Amino acid sequence: MDYVIIRESEAPIVKVFSFITIFVFVVTSFFISKFSIILGVLFFLIGLFLAGFSNAYRITKDFNNEKLFILYGRIFWRSKLDLEFPDYISVFHASFVSRDEVEGTEDKFKKWVVRFFSDNRFFTILEENDYHIALKSANELSELLGVEVYDRSKK
After folding, report:
1. Exposure of 31 by Cβ count < 10 A (0-12 exposed, 13-18 middle, 19+ buried)?
2. Model confidence over 21-49: pLDDT tens digits?
């Protein structure tokens, strides 16, 4: 194995919801505001692009890493990812908070996190809802790079 691609899983319902929202917006704006058909098509294409966009990390054995920008499963752009070689990889459960100060709302969610640690610095390589996917990714990276995985779920 020469490389591992780390990509967060995506909920299919989010894609479907985004397509429905874009379609409703385009149709509504066309009929209510009398926008031109070109503007409606432009909004639809922008939404189509955003719905199919994702990114991933390509971690190689010689540590010439890349950040991949993906559109509907196809890589359309690569950029160099400068990381320090990790001393170890950690898998742990973390709580995140997303605050909307305008509406005064707060969303809390928990995810499994895979991080590279190097001295006192870290890089988050993956945030995942499923523990088994996070642990599998960490173990693949550990095997590729020859570093230890600390599984904090067992403590």
Report:
1. exposed
2. 777 776 776 666 665 666 667 777 777 77
Distance between CA atoms of 79 and 125, rounded to whole angstroms? 15
Which residue type occupies 40?
G
pTM (2 d.p.): 0.74
The amino acid occupying position 86 is P
Nearest to 134 by CA among 70, 81, 90, 95: 90
d(CA 123, CA 137): 15
Over residues 106-143, the pLDDT tens digits come to: 777 788 999 999 988 999 999 888 899 999 999 999 99
**Quick check: 93 and 102 in contact, CB under 8 A?**
no
Hey, what are 144's tokens? Answer: 């590729």
Structure tokens that stand for 81 in this block:
């990812």
Q: At residue 35, what is the residue type? A: F
Q: Which residues of 108-138 are buried (b: 16+ CB within 10 A; e: fewer)?
A: eeebbbbbbbeeeeebebbebeeeeebbebb
Q: Concatenate the DSSP letters of all residues of 60-86 into one string.
A: ETT---EEEEEETTEEEEEEE---PPP
- State both tokens at 53: 């966009």
